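Mods, move this if it's the wrong board.
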Amino acid sequence: MLSRGAAKKVTIYVNEDTRYHMDALWDAILRFLRHKHVAGATVLRPVAGFGAHELIHSPDQEIRSEHMPMRIEFIDSAEKVDELLPSLYDMVVDGLIEVQDTNVIKAAQKGRNPAPRSPHAEINGAAKLIRIYLGEGDKAKDEPLFEAIVKRLMMMEVAGATVYRGILGYGAKGHTHRESRFRLSKDRPIMISVVDQPGRVDEIIDAIAPMMQDGLIVLSDVDVRRFVHALPEQEVNNASSTTR
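Not the wrong board. C-alpha cells:
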C-alpha cells in the first residue's frame, strides 16, 4: 500500500489493438504491474484521440474503432518506478510513456485498518506557538473558515490544534464582536492555537495564510517539556495493571 509523501505517477498511452506476443499490449502491461505488486493501476479508454500517426480514432468511425487509444496509469514510489521502467520501455514498441513527480496525500483501503501513523517527534525545549485569529463568520467556500483550517492542519499531520471561541473582542476594523446574553453573535472572535517544531512553521503558515482574507497570525517562542503522540508502552502497561 502506498504511503504518504513523494511518489511517481506513470502514464502509458498505447493503441487498443497493439499486441504484445499473443495478448493486447494494454492487458499485458496491466498483468505485468499486478505481478510486480504495484500499489494499483487503472486502464482508461478515451472517447477519441490521435497520436504520432495524426489519425483521429473514435468509436463512430468503424474502420478505426479498433485503434482506439488506451491510457494506463499507476502511482508508486520512485524506487519501484525506476525498477519497472526498463521492462515497460521494452514492452511499449508503439506508444508513449510519461513519468511525473507527484505527492500522495492520503492512501486508504476500505475494509483494512489504516496504517499506523508515525509517532510525532518528541519536543523537549524550544518550540513555536502559532495563534491564528479570525472571525467565526469567516467562510471558506461553504464551511466555516476555522473548520477548514483545522482540516488542512489534520491533512498536513500537524500534531494538534485547539480552537477557542471568544466572548468579546475587536480587530483592525474596530468592530466589536461579542456574545450577547439574549442572542448568539454570528461573528464572535475565534483563535486557533498550534504548537509544533520550529522547522514546520513556514510550511504551516504557507498553507494557512492564503485561506485567510481578514485575520491575524502570531508567532511566539515557547518551551515544551513533553510532547508525544501516544503513551510509551511501559506507561500503557502500568496503566492497565492499575485498573485491574
